[in-house]
Give the backbone structure.
Amino acid sequence: MHVKSAKSFRDRTQEFQSIAEQLKKSFSSGSVPDGPSSSSKSEEQRSAVAIQSEFNRRASKIGYGIHQTSQKLAKLAKLAKRTSVFDDPTKEIQELTVLIKQDITALNSAVVDLQLHCNSRNGSGNTYSDTNSHSATVVDDLKNQLMSTTKEFKDVLTLRTENLKVHENRRQLFSSTASKDSINPFVRQRPLAARSAASTSNAPPLPWANGTPSSSQSLPRKQMDGESQPLLQQQQQLVPLQDTYMQSRAEALQNVESTIHELSSIFNQLATLVSQQGEIAIRIDENMDDTLANVEGAQGALLKYLNSISSNRWLMIKIFFVLIFFLMVFLFFVA
Amino acid sequence: MALNLRQKHTECIARMLNLNQPVNATGTANEEVYKILIYDKFCQNILSPLIHVKDLRKHGVTLYFLIDKDRKPVHGVPAVYFVQPNQTNIQRVIADASRSLYDSFHLNFSSSIPRPLLEELASGTLNSDSINRISKVHDQYLEFVTLEDSLFSLAQKSSYVQLNDPSAGDREIEEIVERIVTGLFCVLATLAVVPIIRCPRGGPAEMVASALDQRLRDHLLSKNNLFTEGGSFVSSFQRPILCIFDRNFELSVGIQHDFRYRALVHDVLGLRLNRLSVQGEKGGMRSYELDSSDPFWVVNGSLEFPEVAVEIESQLNKYKKDVDEVNKRTGGTDGAEFDGTDLMGNTKHLMNAVNSLPELTERKQVIDKHTNIATVLLGEIKERSLDSYAKKENDMLVRGNIDRNELLGVLRGKGTKMDKLRFAVMYLISSENINQSEVESVEAALREFEVDTSAFQYVKKLKSLNASVATANLASRNNIVDWAEKIYAVTAGVKNLLSSDRQLALTRTVELLMDGKPNPEIDSYLVFDPRAPKSSSGTSHMRGPFKEAIVFMIGGGNYVEYGSLQEFAQCQQPVKHVIYGATEILTGVEFVEQLTLLGHKMGFGSNAAASTR
């Protein structure tokens, strides 16, 4: 029985605005709102505002893009989890994977752009330091979100490769004798599709390792493509023998490749671990700026005091008097 | 429905950070709204135990500042202010608004902002023509500090001194009572419950209880009250009981030395707002955080210190074993096998090992942290022989007297001046009949060691004025004699005799209040029920057994009471929930300093230095 959570706060905005109305009415006969003084400040503010609003626009666009990508990723994860052997939505998964990869690459470059833009603005020097730290934090936040999305993508792809392996094993289990026949019609039916898939998966730049699982899908296909083409042209009796040999080689290669993938993912994880050590849980009141501000304040107060002492004419006169007094005493009592 | 104060508090703050719109279950909204958070000193203390910087980032807060700091403009972002409603803050807000530091201002006040200040804010911003920047004004009712799931503090300093000050006028006492009532009201608003209030007669407790009752009644009559609970049928089983006590009810707990881990860390090492600074093993100060995210602290906080050391040992051994296992599985000893088939298995093991690395590092960090703390504690305990203080004080309270030589021996032995003073005051409190010569010898011994005896004199005077300081302890002992009437109390008394854990009078009283059976000890307690109409006489059905309780101590509480209440709550069948709070959480040293201050005000000016600092 979930009670609708009662608000534990009170909105005083209406009250505030009604007070403002009342006061405005009482003021309206009196003073004129000072327009000219505000407009003089607005010149430099307008340019800063313009730059900042562009930054905001780009940042929000990137944030929206990341959000949409993560939604697509959720759909992909659902598709990849389906473990039925024959009803494999390979094409959809392939398309979605390519789409998400393009999105992530685009977002990555956009974030890098934004950071460059932010740095150039910070370097130009006519902005305020708080704005700089705000922009830097926004860029950091976007980078973190993108990184987590990429990690999720990598996890989904790993899951997908594992499922593929399971499928392959089951396929061999169920159809061990008919495998060669089934592979050939598979190849004959979609030779163009296989070739185009191989080409599209190699064409976009793959800056990181998670692009390679898709190429591992295409690799056995390509191998079977490349192998079966000359095989078909050769004699049919050699097909069964050479097919098994090729198959086993393909399997072994696949194993090695997946092992290398796993190792690379381990190394990636280690790298992120090491870099994430920097994100220790800091508390709000562990603020070095506070102490810095206090020390600066103390220094300012001391300087002021120093000034007041050093420029005090009365002090100098007093010192003179004391010196002269002691001189007199010295002269009287000693000499 | 367990009342988890910390969770509710964090939820309220999260909602406030989300510009007072309900937080989506999915987390981020479609459009990221980045904001800036500005708070004042008091609200910084509220926020820091609850929210870390990474949580702030999750809610879209990029920068966070103190309101007093000199800040520069940041365009295009809304600013969330979380401040106390007082004059200086309002002036600061007006200054910020007129300088147009931020795009829009969302003002959140930690308690209700009074009307005159609101008008001042309006007129100030109208004058500087920046009123359109103020987009929202909210009362957040969050003016208290939550330290753990069931522990809160109002962070009102020196309330014991102010309430017991002989020179305090009526107006000052009323002000203090008002502040306490505001704080308690905020706690109740955050928990969204209207409890039944019980308090002993007389003293600040009654004043606070009646003022709080009045406040709740007024509030419930207003249009949009904050306590909309389900329906008009509210059974007594769902409403908690709020017990308000005054520090004078049981003075000994605030002063005594305790040997449990949490109390020791607080008393000896100075735990403030869940944060601790100790000397690290390699020199240099290390700062640690001890709260509910630390699994060792949560489990072992109420153990006595030697047991804690044993626990640390066992955790360390378990960790070493796990690390060895991981090393073994990733093929350190047998040599790598480069079989084609086994390669897969190896890499799987490697992957599992890498996945378990973060968890292992975290465990190691926790173990290191507690080892460091325990080492420093051990040093202090040895130096001041705190274990003998704790044991002897416990003996004194249980037995009621102490051998004279032993007493003087302790006073002449190891320990800081404060330790000795505390021991002497405990002797005063625990002895049933004051032996004048003994007292004089104690005072002589104290003076010999240049200990400021004003606190001692104050407690002596207090004890002579009213025997209520002592009766709380006597009550727990007399029941053993009165066994014919209260069989339940007999079992408690026998348990007291057998176990070394003497149950605090506070815990006993809360137990009786929660049970609700008529008992001469608590019959004199007042009952306030803000929901019932004023002239109702049928409140007897509200006295049934309560499953939840909120215990509030005016004048300063500490971790000993908190620990004892939690123990009591856990031992019950079915498990009850007790939330403990106080005007401030004081160590023994701080409390005795307040007593010293009172002693000075009463004119027991000491012959030694003016303060024992």
